[in-house]
Design brief:
Methylamine Dehydrogenase, Chain H; 2 domains; five-stranded antiparallel sheet; four-stranded antiparallel sheet; 23% helix
């Protein structure tokens, strides 16, 4: 047995498709077939199913609480299982009630198993049976049809004799008795060609195509408007004028199929099982279902209906719980009109059986692709309609199927070439009114520069950055907004532009040389005594020359200080003592100012005159830098004292340099 393979692997004899709560494949929509043994008959009970193969074997699966599967136990079977007790028989027919099963064999025997509390097994027993038992009271006969309800059963022989048994509490047997434990003949005055058992009512079709009903009359499912209570005897449904070929019964509704292929519904349709739409949910008179296709087979479950058309299409409606309608694994809503099951677009449906909460279908694959264009049907709102009725009596030729691109090209070709617009030049364009004369009409490119200039945004002044070295005071400027007036920066000093540049270079070199000197002093403290001795003589000569030049400029107090530490200071820190800064080789022509020179400088003119002499002197000093020769403690003490003296001297000149510094910052 194969189950749930690709559709290409389905044999030509077809497969059984399961929908709803079947207990097969975890209640998912699936399919199965028996290898080399086609399935010829199917039946559904309330929660169990049975299939018959061409070899005469019976397979059952589903719920088994009352032993309705016939396997000798009451365990659930999740896959079709062969009933071994009937191995010696060739099964021809099978029918499932709510909780019992009825089987007819080729030898003319009837077997039953399952629930038997109401005598529905026909064994003259009021007990459940979990294995097939033969019904001996009727003898061997050839049976044409079997049907089972909730608590009653029926068997139709090939010669038109109808047997019924089980419970008759609602008149469903038509025998006017409460119970019949063994099969009894039901005489309606003529031969019977079709029988169907609902949950608590029965429908019979005579050989001449007349419809009879009996049993429970709730919801008008008997088609007898004047019958308010149960009907204990079969009565003819006078409203049916056409010949009936088949009938099916559910829990609260009845479906009738005529020889012309029409379908009529009666009963309750609160779940949509009548297929009449949402406007008619209950009818006690036969109502024609609007289907413009001929129906060959009908089946009713508890509250859903299935039909097969003459073209092999399957239509379903009613309660969609558990997906038993076949409209998708996730489509469980109720359907109020007969709707085609798209699952079988590539199949031809042969049989269908509806149960309480599931449905089985036998379908064979269409090996040749059949297009729906051969059918003159159209589906609209879930209801099938004749295409000729929609379009009227006029003959309409089918429209050739073209893509949107091809249709557009054909339309463009029919209309001819499209005209093109003349090219637009500058001369053809009119000047915009919004410019108000800014553009000259004679020449579109000529624009008044003075007029356009007033639309230009004013340029913002450069922003000066405050300096952080002690001798230069920066000016903090704020960038004004575009809307505010930009003030002009005025020069407060009397220096010329060249003088300001020289002053700026002097301050930059002074700041750079001071930082280099501080680093040099720290490095020189770690120099060995041998290095100090080598440079001592050279430093003495240079310092003696400096002292001769600077003796006239020093004060009396400064001379005393120089005499006390002349040898130490001149040999170790002559660059720092003279200007606290030195010029490296990377600064070409940069001047170096000493602390003593700053003290004697009284005017800007004298400073410019001394720059050249001091530049030459510093070039000589750079070639031979001095190193400290005294102890580290005395050297550091001396350096701190000299640094303090230089700062005191610079404070005296701060007022004079403030104007110069502000001007330099503005130039930068």
């Amino acid at each position: 047995m194969a189950a749930d393979f690709n559709e290409e692997e389905i044999p030509e004899c077809g497969a059984v498709f399961t929908f709803g709560r079947t207990r097969f494949a975890e209640n998912m929509n699936s399919k199965f077939w028996i290898k080399n043994d086609a399935i010829i008959a199917i039946a559904c009970g309330d929660e169990h199913s049975a299939v018959v193969s061409s070899s005469g074997r019976l397979y059952t699966f589903g719920s088994n609480d009352w032993g309705q599967l016939g396997h000798g136990h009451s365990k659930v079977c999740s896959k079709p299982t062969f009933v071994k007790a009937l191995k010696q028989e060739k099964v021809m027919l099978v029918a499932c009630g709510r909780s019992h099963t009825l089987v007819a064999t080729e030898s003319g025997c009837l077997y039953s198993f399952g629930a038997g509390s109401e005598g529905q097994l026909g064994l003259d027993l009021i007990q459940n049976v979990n294995a097939p038992h033969r019904i001996d009271t009727v003898g061997k006969q050839q049976y044409k049809m079997l049907s089972c309800g909730t608590e009653h059963s029926a068997a139709l022989t090939t010669n038109g004799c109808l047997y019924v048994w089980g419970s008759d509490s609602e008149g469903q047997l038509g025998l006017e008795c409460d119970e019949c434990r063994t099969p009894a003949v039901l005489d309606i005055g003529c031969k019977v060609k079709y029988v169907a058992c609902g949950y608590y009512h029965t429908a019979i079709v005579s050989e001449d195509g007349k419809l009879y009903t009996c049993g429970e009359a709730d919801g008008g499912k008997l088609g007898l408007p004047d019958q308010l209570d149960s009907c204990v005897r079969p009565r003819r449904v006078a409203a049916m004028k056409e010949k009936v070929c088949a009938v099916a019964c559910g829990n609260s509704h009845t479906a009738v199929s005529t020889e012309s292929g029409k379908v009529y519904m009666i009963g309750s349709g609160d779940c949509g099982q009548l297929g009449l739409g949402t406007s008619i949910l209950n009818c006690d008179m036969l109502q024609l279902v609007n289907i413009m296709k001929q129906i060959t087979t009908i089946s009713c479950g508890e509250n859903h209906t299935a039909c097969i058309t003459d073209t092999g299409h399957l239509l379903t409606c009613g309660n969609g719980k558990h997906g038993k309608l076949g409209h998708g694994d996730n489509n469980f809503h109720n359907t109020f009109t007969l709707t085609r099951v798209k699952r079988f677009v590539k199949f031809t449906v042969k049989q269908v059986a509806c149960g309480g909460c599931h449905m089985l279908v036998i379908a064979v694959p269409n090996r040749q692709d059949e297009s729906d264009s051969e059918e003159s049907v159209a589906m609209s709102s879930g209801r099938w309609q004749d295409a000729s009725e929609l379009m009227g009596s006029k003959s309409v030729s089918p429209r050739q199927s073209l893509s949107a691109r091809d249709r557009r090209r054909s339309q463009n070709a029919a209309q001819g070439p499209l005209f093109s617009l003349q090219p637009i030049g500058r001369a053809s364009l009119q000047p915009l009114d919004s410019l108000n004369g800014l553009i000259d009409s004679s020449n579109s490119r000529s624009v008044d520069r003075h007029t356009v200039a007033k639309f230009e945004k004013p340029k913002l002044p450069d922003i000066s950055v405050p300096s952080h070295f002690p001798h230069q005071v920066g000016i903090a400027s704020v960038k004004p907004n575009a809307d505010e007036d930009v003030p002009e920066v005025s020069e407060e000093s009397g220096l010329s532009e060249s003088e300001n540049e020289e002053e700026t270079e002097r301050h930059d070199s002074n700041r750079t040389s001071r930082n280099e000197t501080e680093q040099t002093i720290v490095q020189r403290l770690d120099v060995d005594d041998e290095d100090e001795g080598e440079t001592e003589d050279e430093d003495e000569e240079e310092e003696e020359d400096e002292d001769d030049e600077d003796e006239d400029e020093e004060d009396d107090d400064d001379e005393d200080d120089d005499d006390e530490g002349n040898e130490d200071v001149k040999q170790t820190e002559s660059p720092s003592a003279q200007g606290l800064s030195t010029t490296s080789d990377d600064h070409d022509g940069g001047g170096v100012e000493s602390g003593k020179d700053d003290e004697e400088e009284t005017s800007r003119q004298n400073r410019r005159d001394d720059d050249d002499d001091k530049g030459k002197r510093n070039e000589t000093k750079n070639k031979s830098e001095t190193t400290p020769s005294q102890s580290r403690f005395s050297k550091l003490k001396f350096w701190k004292r000299k640094r303090k003296d230089v700062q005191v001297q610079d404070d005296g000149q701060s007022s004079q340099q403030s104007q110069t510094s502000s001007n330099v910052c503005n130039i930068l």
